[in-house]
Specification:
Order of helices and strands: HHHHH
Radius of gyration: 17 Å
Number of helices: 5
Number of strands: 0
Distance between the termini: 15 Å
Helix content: over 70%
Structural class: mainly alpha
Length: 133
């Protein structure tokens, strides 16, 4: 895996902290919570997309694709957080409650589970690959 330089690593970690802060403060109905989360998601996902795998291990390539799916779900969660603040799509109340209201939590949960799984498995696979060399 391509390693990030110091600046990229700082953006990556700051993005992760902002995502946690944004998700946590949204429970308190803080108006700036979606902005924090979106800024963090942009930083986190963009730096994670810069980490490329240049080897030929099929399992790691598959896990990287799953990780990129979780990055997309983080960004979808940010969009849904903005849509959750007000009915920005001008839907009727029942449709808004069915499809938009607090659905960002579901996409965030799926993204976080995929992220944990892929991070753990990629670490294992890279360790096995290093032992073979």
């Amino acid at each position: 895996m391509k390693q990030l330089n110091n600046w990229q690593n700082a953006i990556f970690l700051t993005g992760a902290i902002l995502m946690v802060a944004g998700a946590g403060t949204s429970l308190l109905n803080w108006a700036a919570a979606p902005y924090l989360f979106a800024l963090g998601a942009l930083g986190f996902t963009s730096m994670q997309m810069l980490q490329r795998y240049e080897g030929s291990n099929f399992v790691i390539r598959r896990l990287r694709r799953i990780m990129l799916l979780s990055d997309i779900l983080f960004l979808v969660s940010a969009l849904l957080m903005f849509a959750n603040q007000a009915n920005v799509f001008h839907l009727d109340h029942i449709t808004y409650l069915q499809y938009i209201y607090n659905k960002w939590v579901v996409t965030l949960l799926i993204a976080a589970i995929l992220q944990l799984y892929t991070t753990h498995r990629i670490g294992q696979e890279l360790g096995q690959e290093a032992k073979k060399l």
